[in-house]
Design brief:
Layout (H helix, E strand, L loop, with lengths): L12 E7 L1 E2 L11 E2 L7 H21 L7 E8 L7 H14 L2 E11 L6 H10 L4 E7 L3 H6 L6 H13 L4 E8 L6 H13 L4 E6 L15 H17 L3 E4 L2 E3 L6 H7 L3 E5 L4 E6 L2 E6 L4 H6 L8 E2 L2 H12 L6 E2 H8 L9 H7 L2 E4 L2 E4 L1 H4 L2 H8 L3
Parallel strand pairs: 1-4, 1-11, 2-3, 4-5, 5-6, 6-7, 7-8
Antiparallel strand pairs: 8-10, 9-10, 12-13, 13-14, 15-17, 16-17
Helix pairs in contact: 1-2, 2-3, 6-7
Bound molecules: iron/sulfur cluster.
């Protein structure tokens, strides 16, 4: 599997907008959303809240004397953003443009569930919004696994939706896949990857199913050897189909890496609006975080000043950056990292052992995980950060 180091991954500034409704709540999902499919869902109220929150944030940052550059990425996530009528999304973009304008070449992504995608909806999105990238949850192409995951779409829905997205002219689109589903075989993991690739997305996210203890399927999850083998085989199939790994769970055609993801992993600044959305800014040598309330009713009552910013300690920022950056293809730019976070990973006590084990490589000023090391990423990052 090719694992080519990049020279540098840019940071930057992006905006995340959380749209908190789904037709059905899938029990494995950790994201905040409410099951609503009827016309009466308070879509307009949420949009009003988001517009007010954007205005409030802009004012708050002005008072703090924090200036942000043009946004390079905007990401509409959820929930299921594609349940929102496009004219309402136009209002959201109107407010973003007013308070946090974006660059002319910004990547603007919208998540969509396959069963909501129609030609008319895609045309309406193109007419009313600047969205130029679509991200769809396929998860699997086996109907019994889709049922296990409580997905409403069928494999045929995903294939049809991918075709419509391409026909509508969205050249840049992602499919999400999940592996290590209870009852899944290794052959099915590979087949899912091959089927996804045959739909010609520019990007494929390949996540392992993780469940919290107590979930009804927790005890049916495949064992660790399946997880490792499933990841290896799936990643190999992705590379074979022309998708390069650029983060442990993310693969893209060359030049089609998700810039919003990259910004997040490399310590970039982002503002998150909408219930449950997180924000992060790097100010005075440490990250500041703000987590919006995960309660729609309370959010709608007061979207502007619900939760305050909290400042990380320098050590928390360094830990956070280690966990995120080490998972990327290029790894950590050691000099830049040390300059920014004040910690030099070359001084980590465990580094010589990890190098000897063949889990990490230091090359061209970057420290990165090897293919073997990727399977142990969390433990390695935790120990690297402990010195
Ligand atoms: S549709 Fe997506 S966001 Fe909604 S509950 Fe299911 S997985 Fe989560």
């Amino acid at each position: 599997m090719g694992f080519v180091a990049l020279c540098r991954m840019p940071r930057g500034f992006g905006i995340y907008i959380h749209l908190p409704f789904c037709t059905h709540r899938c029990s494995y999902c950790d994201f905040y959303s409410l099951a609503r499919k009827d016309e009466a869902a308070p879509y307009a109220a949420v949009v009003d809240g988001i517009v007010a929150e954007l205005a409030g944030l802009s004012q708050e940052l002005r008072v703090k004397n924090i200036r942000l550059p043009l946004a390079e990425t905007i990401f509409l996530g959820g929930g299921t953003p594609s349940l929102f009528p496009a004219p309402l999304l136009e209002q959201v973009f109107g407010a973003v443009e007013e308070f946090f304008p974006w660059a002319s070449d910004a990547e603007i992504t919208m998540e969509a569930n396959p069963e909501t995608v129609t030609t008319a909806y895609l045309e309406s999105i193109q007419k009313h919004t600047p969205v130029n990238r679509i991200s769809m949850g396929a998860q699997s192409f086996e109907s019994r696994h889709l049922k296990t995951l409580e997905r409403l779409c069928t494999a045929e829905d995903v294939k049809r939706a991918a075709g419509l997205v391409r026909q509508a002219g969205f050249e840049n689109f992602n499919l999400d896949l999940i592996f290590a589903i209870p009852g899944q075989t290794l052959e099915e993991v590979v087949r899912d990857v091959e089927t996804a690739a045959s739909l010609l997305p520019t990007h494929i996210s390949f996540y392992q199913l993780t469940l919290t203890p107590g979930h009804k399927l927790f005890s049916s999850l495949p064992d660790e050897s399946f997880q490792v083998e499933g990841y290896e085989r799936g990643a190999h199939a992705l590379e074979k189909a022309g998708y390069d790994l650029y983060e442990i769970s993310n693969f893209a055609k060359r030049g089609k890496e998700c810039r919003h993801n990259e910004l997040y992993w490399t310590g970039g600044d982002f503002l998150g609006v909408g219930p449950s959305a997180s924000s992060r800014l790097f100010v005075d040598g440490a990250f500041m975080h703000r987590k919006q309330i995960s309660d729609l009713a309370k959010y709608l009552k007061n979207p502007v000043s619900t939760h305050a910013w909290e400042q990380n300690t320098a050590q928390q920022s360094f830990l956070e950056a280690t966990f995120l950056e080490m998972r990327t293809r290029s790894g950590v730019d050691l000099n830049d990292f040390s300059h920014r976070y004040g910690y030099d990973l070359r001084r980590s006590r465990k580094l010589p052992v990890f190098k000897e084990q063949g889990w990490v490589v230091e090359e061209g000023g970057f420290l990165r995980l090897t293919r073997q090391g990727r399977l142990l990423a969390d433990g390695i990052c935790r120990d690297l950060a402990d010195y």
